[in-house]
Amino acid sequence: KQVLLFAVITIIDAQSGHAAEAESNVTAYEGHYLQYPQCSIPDCKPSMFEFCGVASIGKIFDEYLKVLGFKYDAKRSEGGNTKFKVALIDDKTNRYCYGIRIQRHLLSLMYSQNVEETGIAIDLLQLLEKTELHKVVYRHSFWPETYSMKSDKQRKKFLRQLPCDSRQQSDPWIFKNNEHRGTGIVFVHNANDIRRLLLTNDDLKYGLRHNDYRFFHDCSYRNGVRRFSVAEIKEFGFQDKDIDDIAHVVKGESLIAQRYISNTYLVNGRKFGIRSFVVLLSLNPYIVLFSDGYISINAEQFDAVNIQKHNVLSNREVSSKSKKASELDWNWSFEQMDEHLQQDETVNFRMADIREKMMDAARSTFHAAMRTNGKFSKSTRKKLNKYLPIALSNNIIDKRDNNYVWLAMDYLLTDDGNVKLLEINLHPGTRFIPSYCSWYQVEGVEENESSWQCQMARNITHEIVNVTLSLALERQFGNYKLVNMREKLEQLLKFHKVLI
């Protein structure tokens, strides 16, 4: 038996002889029953709770849910996101992610807020795009110097601070769009190249009106307009969607320009990033959990004379392309990193210090998403106005839904022990977890017990499932109380920390 706190529910282990077959599998809860029926029609009613595959921690997640008695939906697993679900017996129907392609669990979480009652809009969507995240955290020291190319004011400020003599610019500027996994990131070293890429006809007219030479190619009135061809712009690395193929300039609607951080700490001469995980357990009330992640190390030795994307970025997609790296080369546990820091006599900080700073940055970021004026950002309103009516008309979200979102936050570490937030990822990759990892004991596979990756996956899975299901049950059966909520959460949690 598996005891879940909060609502104290007893779940029959589906692996034991006491569990019935799929169609009659039930779980007792103080006179109520839960069961897991199939639903073959598109207009399913709301379920009490569901887990979506896009928000899982891979195979281990699926295995643990089966242990708890959840039923796997093979029919819908390919077409939609929902894999496991639990419904009230008096409902006898369930809900699937089907039809329109939306981030259903994310939209459902946004819809669960009671903005009219609280006067607070938690703008979760704003944190998931770099251009929007910048608007939320730009005042914080953990956010690198950044300019939004969509903002006319910030764009002009960025262009004014570029040197006219490119020899004065030793480090590149990094342009990022809202893509992830290393795509959409472009390094540009030459300030005059940046002007040729960005300056529009309106910019040139502005320079003439205000007698500002910094808004001309090569900072000279006498030089004509010399634009790159579309093919040349693509050679820099910009994507088609970011290029105006008529004006031959880079569009700024979805781009930020970020100053390269030159004082990063190196591991054995390599750049690296730190990933931590965050669970948005609820937006009503606002509950955010934090957990350790891993260190992602670049496969290439860093060369300060030749700063390029391939020897700076340390994400999985970039490192995996290197023939020099094995799976163990590119990721370390926090404990391995701490051992490395202890042996480095040039630094006086440890992983515990770094973890606290990452937690502070995460807490500040998610606090900043709380809009006390009760209004979502323009970007979020646009998305909600587009997708909410479709989801509601198709009956695929409901105020009674109980969903969560699992996120990853990526940081850089400077040589003085400070952290810089880079981005927040909605669907963290789980390929850092080896394929041999399992919730079950696997005979002959000792790594399944000894690997820190396997243990981390089990820890994250165990706590996300238990806490999320417990909160859903409290809400469903009317036992939901905010009193001592943090204390209750911390009783359930060993691996995660409560941020908010």
Reconstruct the topology from this structure.
Blueprint lengths: L1 E3 L4 E3 L14 E4 L2 E4 L13 E4 L6 H9 L3 E2 L9 E7 L15 H8 L3 H4 L2 E2 L7 H8 L8 E3 L3 H10 L11 E4 L8 E4 L2 H8 L2 H9 L20 H7 L6 E2 L4 E2 L5 E4 L12 E12 L2 E12 L11 H4 L3 H4 L7 H4 E2 L1 H10 L7 H18 L1 E2 L6 H16 L11 E9 L5 E7 L21 H4 L1 H25 L8 H8 L4 E2 L2
Antiparallel strand pairs: 1-2, 3-4, 4-7, 5-7, 6-7, 8-18, 9-14, 10-11, 10-14, 12-13, 15-16, 15-19, 16-17, 16-21, 19-20
Helix pairs in contact: 1-16
**Radius of gyration, Cα only, in angstroms?**
25 Å
Beta-strand content bin: 15-25%
The number of E-state strands comes to: 21
Structural class by sheet pairing and helices: alpha+beta
Low-pLDDT stretches are: 1-48, 75-81, 87-102
Distance between the termini: 31 Å
**Number of H/I helices:** 17
Please tell me what the overall shape is.
globular
Q: What helical percentage do the residues reach?
A: 25-40%
Largest sheet composition: 6 strands, antiparallel
Mean pLDDT, nearest integer? 78
